[in-house]
Amino acid sequence: MAKREIPEVNAGSMADIAFLLLIFFLVTTTMDKDQAYIRSIPKNIEVTTPPVPVQERDICAIQANSKNQLMIRGRLMSDPELISDEIVKFFRTNEKQNDPTNDFPMYSRISMSEIDALLNQAIKEAEETEATPNAMEEIIDFKYRQVAEWEKKKSALKLYGKNKLPEISVQAHIRIDVQKGTEYGLFAKIQSEVEEAFFELRDDAAKSIFNESYAKIKGRYAMDESKPDKEKLALLKILYPDRIIEVTPKQ
Asked: Cys-Cys with 247: which of 29, 30, 177, 225 at CB 3.0–4.6 Å?
């Protein structure tokens, strides 16, 4: 019986097919993103007068060492999931009524008449500074930014719907201090817990004041940047300002 010849397979187009498959997978595959947090870094300025000492009660210090041991406000904490709870406690303890016997930030409360008086004073100082010969542009700009801040507070109090606007101490802040040996996973967890705490605080306030969620207001503002939503977000930020200081990592 004659031996059958095996037909040859035309592989000329295999390279084209492999190339098309490669393109397909490159286009359709999603890549995992690294966890990262972007914050505005303040400019380095020369200070001519010594800063006012910050009271311990105004600092919510979050520390992590090279052994990934976590400490919040001087207390060891084994579960990073509780960081957000501690930050919420930091803001809410004296929010309703100041208690000077505890070690949490104090609140001030300002009325509309007080805001109007301070706004008029700020406007007067800004105009006088602008009219001063050879006045530095930076100083003029600073004076008008003060005017804008008082105008923002006036709008905020109108939205707040109460007699006085509560504000946490101007020195109150979150201080994140990690060492170079701290695992990035723990550092990222600290950052996410801080974000979660501010979201919770602002979300509760948004539901109480505006009867809608913080996420809904943010999402709507991202779509159309309407003035009412901008003012709502400004009020929530005044009530719960995200002042965060990140210390340069040490050994």
From this structure: 177
